[in-house]
Amino acid sequence: MPRAVALGGAVAVGILTALQARVNGSLGHEMGDGFVAAFVSFSSGFVILVVLSLALPAGRAGLRRLATGVRHGHVPIWMLLGGLAGALTVATQGLTVAIIGVALFTVGVVAGQTVNGLVLDRVGYGPAGVVPLTWGRIIGGAVVLAAVVVLVSSEGTTAVPWWMLLLPFVSGAGIAWQQATNGRLRQAVESPLTATLVNFAGGTAALAIAGGVHGAISGLHVTVPGAGWLYLGGAIGVVYIFLSAALVRHTGVLLLGLGSVVGLLATSVTLDAIWPPESGPNPAIALAGVVVALAGVVIAAARRRQRAGGSADSTSAGSTPRS
Where are the beta strands (DSSP E) in the chain? Predict the structure, then answer.
């Protein structure tokens, strides 16, 4: 896949992630229960994927390969667990976004994705294998973190509970792991659709358990909102997780995360301008953060020029060390 196309897809993943955060955050706020809202969002996506997987020949073939792989041990159990990180992300959206805003949520996600993306690429966890920690990738990641600092500098976080600041970071680290895990599963079953279905099946089960425990402890007091757009989070998740599973082998974990950062930041700024949160950054600071993040993506994506008399030292995400 051409690098520009892969990066464009990564940015689209970020845009959709920010949109889903706003939708699920609003659903959690309207329902009065973030866990139930997360379950509704994830289960709706699961139903969509079941229908597609049974209706499409490619989906049925992917399910057969999945069953064969699990039966013969070619698809280990850990490859089926990516949905746990997805469940955490959706639950975090429902619990925090309506209070802290999309931009502040994104700040934590960006930081978690960047740090864990570097680690996962270095150890070779993703489907692209070991991606070297070149200076371009390290500096690019650091510049993206600088964008996070730019946005945080205008955030009034003193009144925000510490767990609301921590959860997005943990969620971002989980997203990086989820993208790599789903990419490995997609490679094993040769189907992004099947990998996405497995992700939603696991996430739906996890959220059903979490929601049941939460309801048993705190009681179930849910309002059912009538606005149809509040229920689109699952469908949006289907699209961006499918894209992530298809793209990660072309980009590597870190570059997929960095590209999605641009989409996340730009869209979160737009959404917070339309629905201003209490702790959102002012437009000038938000724009500066987007520009800095874009610079980080460009630095991380750039290839080093071939040295005279030697082979090029590729920094493309998705490349493996040459023997």
Answer: none
For the record, the structure tokens of 21 come out as: 């955060």
Residue 257 near residue 115, CB atoms below 8 Å: no
Contact partners, residue 13, CB within 8 Å, separation at least 6 = 240, 243, 244, 247, 256, 259, 260, 263
Q: Find how far residue 48's CA is from the centre of its chain.
A: 19
Write out the residue range of the structural domain in which residue 146 sits. 3-301
Distance in angstroms (rounded) separating the CA atoms of residues 285 and 152:
9
**Does 59 map to a domain?**
yes
Asked if residue 319 belongs to a domain, the reply is: no
Is 151 inside a domain boundary?
yes
Domain count, the chain: 1
List the one residue out of 266, 268, 254 whose CA is nearest residue 300.
254
What average pLDDT does range 15-32 have in this prediction? 86
d(CA 20, CA 67) in angstroms, rounded, equals 31
Which of 230, 256, 296 minimizes the C-alpha distance to 172?
256
What integer pLDDT is reported at residue 154 of this predicted model?
61
Residues above pLDDT 70, as percent of the chain: 86
CA angle at 96 for the pair 94 and 98, rounded to the nearest 5°: 80
Mean pLDDT of 18-45: 86
- The b/e string for 222-233 (b: 16+ C-beta within 10 A; e otherwise) is eeebeeeebbbb
Task: Answer yes or no: are the C-beta atoms of 110 and 262 closer than 8 Å.
Answer: no
**What integer best gives the mean pLDDT of the chain?**
79
Structural tokens at position 304: 């080093």
Give CA–CA dist 135/236, Å, rounded. Answer: 35
For residues 244 and 252, give the distance between their C-alpha atoms in angstroms, rounded to a whole number: 10
Tokens at 136, concatenated: 């371009």
Asked if residue 308 is part of any domain, the answer here is no
Residue 178 — very low, low, confident or very high, per pLDDT cuts 50/70/90? Answer: confident
In this structure, are residues 121 and 179 in contact, taking their beta carbons and an 8 Å threshold? Answer: no
Q: How far apart are alpha carbons 39 and 208 in whole angstroms?
A: 6
